[in-house]
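so my prof wants the structure for this chain in the tokens format not the other one, which i didnt know existed until like an hour ago. anyway here's the sequence
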Amino acid sequence: MNRYEVTIECMTPCGGSKYARREILEIEAESPLAYVEQNRQYPILEILEEGNGEVTILTGNAVGYKTRYYFSL
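here's what i got, hopefully its the right format
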């Protein structure tokens, strides 16, 4: 298990990221993808991996509700 700090942004179609609800958690997980698979509401749309070990995963639906997960070690 790895320890991550994850910032979760929940966005609505009307407010977008400007009015997103944010929370920061410290978690232990096999990988960022495994954590999102267990906790997501919507299908995964995009996965971005940075060279420094940071991972961003975006989930969402066709109506415009999105959740963005930022993982850092």
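also thought this was worth mentioning. The chain has a mean pLDDT of 94.
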